[in-house]
Amino acid sequence: MFNLDDLYRARYVLGEILRRTDLVRAPKLNPESDIYLKPENLQITGSFKIRGAYYKISQLTEEEKKRGVVACSAGNHAQGVALGATSHGIKSLICLPEGAPISKVEATRRLGAEICLVPGVYDDAYQRAMQLRDEMGYTFVHPFNDEHVIAGQGTIGLELLEQLPDVQAVVVPIGGGGLISGVAYAMKSLNPKIEIYGVQAAGAPSMYESIKQKQAITLPQVSTVADGIAVKTPGDLTYDICSKYVDDICTVSEDEICAAILRLLEEEKIVAEGAGAVSVAAAMFNKVPIKGKKTICLVSGGNIDVTILNRVINRGLEKGGRICTISMELDDKPGQLYEVNGVIAGMGGNVLSVYHERSAYSKKINACELSVKIETRNHEHVEEIKESLKSKGFKLK
């Protein structure tokens, strides 16, 4: 088992490569808490993963370095391994799920790694990496279930204690558990009173279910916009550490993740990927008990695929009541659409699109269906518009 000396050693080694990520105070995310963000999305390679990958590679023997390294990743660990290996003059081969964002795949390639795309998700890429390790003799660099990797990630915990000594709670994303294991071990070892909360996507709750069932389990499948934490099976080492040092784990929905990404963009000018935003989602939607506490949310990465960013923003707008669709049945006669638009405009709503159809399935022969997509301020504003429409006699669905 590693100890605090390993974390301090890792911090010394990482001093030659890391970018300093200062805390950002974010009071608007949850007015009931004093929230700070640790923006590891600004780290070199765009995520915290460089810490564990680089430190692991720095500790390889000369024989292991000669054989080259193989790794599996959803994208962020891949970039960390690629940069670490290239920096040390080592060959690297990375197995990625074929559904990994193109931006992450190409970034890994640019950093000097060979790429092997594997059908399926992270766990399928892991199996392929194991085969290549056995066939070709590569040294495997695990993304989370490795003491050197955990020690590298744990350097974040040391930084948090220096940057905010009186921190009371820390909220950390969980995929396989390497990040939260390192952070929790570091912070609990130095100050046991600090509360450590983990967050998983509801579509990939492997560590959440494992802790609940008191044994490491494997999910039949995972599906989430937070591709960086879409892991079916946590590590045995990370499971043990989480069992001992993590206070609780929660899950957040896809809509909550999208809302957090949008809030970070709008309020904090921070670009976060789904995996990086789950900690903020947990704080925003009160999934963790941080009311009145000085809290740090780890924004673990910012390598979001720009091709899905628009969809993520729209989901976030809908979750926050900033966009809504109102459907109703109208009498098919002149002036109805004009009157509906007048009500919406009078209430301060902005019509984005209109869908009008003469319904063949209505009980009324002269009826039609209308769906109006509206830009609104919040959920309260949506309800005000609906009530105003009802008061004018419109039948909402």
Key structural traits:
single chain; 397 residues; 14 strands
Explained architecture:
- This protein is of the alpha/beta class and 397 residues long.
- The chain is built from 15 helices and 14 strands.
- Strands 1-2-10-7-8-9 form a 6-stranded mixed beta sheet, with helices on both faces. A 4-stranded parallel beta sheet has the order 5-4-3-6, with helices on both faces. A 4-stranded antiparallel beta sheet has the order 12-13-11-14.
- The longest helix has 17 residues.
- It is elongated, with a radius of gyration of 24 Å.
Please give a quick description of this structure.
The protein is 44% helix and 19% strand. It contains 15 helices and 14 strands.
Q: Main sheet?
A: 6 strands, mixed
Helix and strand content put the structural class at alpha/beta
Give the termini separation: 60 Å
Please report the total strand number as a whole number. Answer: 14
List low-pLDDT spans.
none
Number of helices: 15
* Estimated share of beta-strand residues: 15-25%
Mean pLDDT, to the nearest integer, reads 93
Q: Helix and strand string, N-terminal first?
A: HEEHHEHEHEHEHEHEHHEHHEHEHEEHE
What is Rg?
24 Å
The global form is elongated
Helix content: 40-55%
Strand order of the largest sheet: 1-2-10-7-8-9
